[in-house]
Amino acid sequence: MKKILYIALLSLGFNTIATAAPGDTTWVQANQVNLDYYNNFDDTVAFPDGSVTYRKILMVFTLGQYNCPSGSQYCHQWDYAVQNYLMTPHGDTLELSRLITPYANSGWSRFGSSWKQPYVFEVTDFAALLKDTATVRIHYSGYSGGFTANIKFAFIEGTPDRTVTGFDKLYDFSHSYGDANNPINDAFTTANLTAPANTESATLRYIVTGHGSDDNGCCEFDNHYYKVNLNGNTIAQKDVWRDNCGVNELYPQGGTWIYNRANWCPGASVLPIDHTLTGVSANDNYTVNIQYAPYTGSGAIGSYTSSATIFYHGAFNKTLDASINDIMAPTNDPNYYRQNPTGSKPQILVHNSGSTPISSIEFKYSIQDSTEHTYTWNGTIAPLEEVTIELPVLQELVNMSMANASGNFNFNVEIVTVNGQADEDATNNRFSSNFKAAPLWPSDIIVSLKTGNLEEQNGSVFIGNPNQKWMITNMNGDIVALKDGTSADTQYIDTIGLPAAGIYKLTISSGNNMGLHWWPYDNSAGVKAGAFSVKKLNGSKIPMKNYAYSGTARDDWGSEYSTYFSVNAAGTYVGVKNATIDSKLNVYPNPAQDILNVEVNETFAQPSTIKLVNTLGQVVYSTTSQEQLTQINTSKLSNGVYTLLISNGAGTKTKKVIINK
């Protein structure tokens, strides 16, 4: 065990919790192992002795990868379930957490020998068992290797939100679903239980994932529901389904990562589902069970892997207490990859740890070694609820981006008061993050969108219009440029002048959840991939976060791609100036100032003779080029309308060009 003097480093050091006093966080190292094949990987762990109370206990599971032996198949390239168990000497075996490995194919830009992905799970309710010597088990369901696992526990001293008075293990099994000869509901037997003394509330925590596929896609790709029955009455009904895999933070991946699935996405943690057992309190006798919707499968039968535990809690230990649980932006934490590098408004996760509803919180926040700002948020946070709070524009963030600052920086935020009063527990009031600034772009840009032609409806994919579009918004959310209403398999090039210095957000979206290109359809007849790029007026591409532009697998961003950037002056062009152009000939910007780019599609035969003719019929520019991109210096030409002529073996094309300096 290792003592950290004043901070608990979480998520590989991307974010940090600042605590109240030296020596109040203890780190415990557990499993460090290569997950080489389907197996249980056990490690005996020496936890604290239980003499100290902990405000929070966090389990940090860091997934990585190693190179498999030569000839290995599917090395770190498949989505497998990873279940993490605690096994005590007294016979208790409880699932602490679950995650799914990603399609971490080599060559995809996020993955390589140094790739690490942290998964942080709060396991505070297991405090009574996380003591002395116990076994931590990783159950890896993979039939290939390539992943590494490293588990550490952070024991943060202090007072928990509520004291756990006891627990009951309800279910822990995998069972087929849809087999008429072996119904799943027979396995979910009804439990007769008694709440322990001092109990004020009870919660059924259910971890469930669907696997396998019958003729209907059940259970991995088919949506079914279960009910929670308390004393014979249904108190909850929940679909076992995750409908946001297309915005997975861990992208792009090599497999079918964008498909929504039964409560899991490849490369993501599995979110436990909590059901409050309303009315259950100290010494109450009650019955509880889970029952699934009736279903008869066809063909191979899938299954649900279930783990359910009932936790009993006593009264709140604090009356008025807000806790900062995380910083979503600005941060380098890969769990918030899509939101970062951010623009100008920090986002934090705040939890109500007390019994009193929160209506206002006063914060102070700053970039390290810069001016400290204060802000009072007003709203409502119910007890035990967590909300995302967006702080006002932090000008230092804007300035750093506009200065094109490089390197890592530090952001700090702290709770000052809650509901106008001193916060009851100061140990959970501070948080810090490491981050990079958003990049600086030119004020005038050329945005190129080549739409694809794959459409998706209700899980079926066919050739159609995917309604792909882009937009640029300012930090108030106002749209300053938009390309919408697009057609399939069409090239759009637009010249944009940003209206003022500041931070902007570029967003590309696709109605098919497949980005602009998705590898399974590379060789399908009639399928056309899309592509996207942002260029300077001289035609050079502007680098974008995790983006390779041109109809390759790296355009595989799922439902939406976004990136923040800044400009340090107003642009010359205002709004969208160029409409759809010929897919064989791209001419931009139009109107032009100093440079006119003539881009000839590779299918339009070369070499080409390029001429620019004024309204008097005079040739003001002429050249012969074998290059795909030719740049014409227009800085010395008079304002007006010109005709561009491109001639080669494939014929002659003409374009009207406006020069306006």
Structure commentary:
By secondary structure, this protein is mainly β. The longest helix is centred in the middle third of the chain and has 8 residues, at 395-402. It is globular, with a radius of gyration of 29 Å.
Biggest sheet architecture: 7 strands, antiparallel
Q: How would you describe the shape?
A: globular
Strand content: over 45%
* Helix/strand structural class: mainly beta
Rg on CA atoms, Å: 29 Å
List unreliable stretches of 5+ residues: 1-12, 18-23, 549-553, 575-581
Distance between the termini: 68 Å
Helix content: under 10%
Alpha plus pi helix count: 2
Mean pLDDT: 89
**Number of extended strands:** 44
Task: Write the SSE topology.
Elements (H helix, E strand, L loop, with lengths): L1 E3 L2 E4 L4 E4 L6 E11 L3 E8 L7 E12 L15 E7 L5 E8 L15 E7 L10 E8 L6 E11 L4 E16 L6 H4 L3 E4 L6 E11 L13 E6 L2 E7 L33 E4 L8 E8 L9 E15 L5 E8 L17 E6 L5 E10 L5 E9 L4 E5 L4 H8 L6 E10 L2 E2 L7 E6 L8 E7 L3 E4 L2 E4 L5 E6 L4 E5 L7 E7 L4 E8 L21 E5 L24 E8 L7 E2 L8 E4 L6 E6 L7 E6 L5 E7 L3 E5 L6 E9 L2 E9 L2
Antiparallel strand pairs: 1-4, 2-3, 3-27, 4-11, 5-10, 6-9, 6-11, 7-8, 7-10, 12-19, 13-18, 14-17, 14-19, 15-16, 15-18, 20-21, 21-24, 22-23, 22-25, 25-26, 25-27, 28-33, 28-35, 29-30, 31-32, 31-34, 33-37, 34-36, 38-39, 39-42, 40-41, 40-43, 43-44
List keywords for this structure.
7-stranded antiparallel β-sheet, 2 helices, 5-stranded antiparallel β-sheet, disordered N terminus, 47% strand, mainly beta, 661 residues
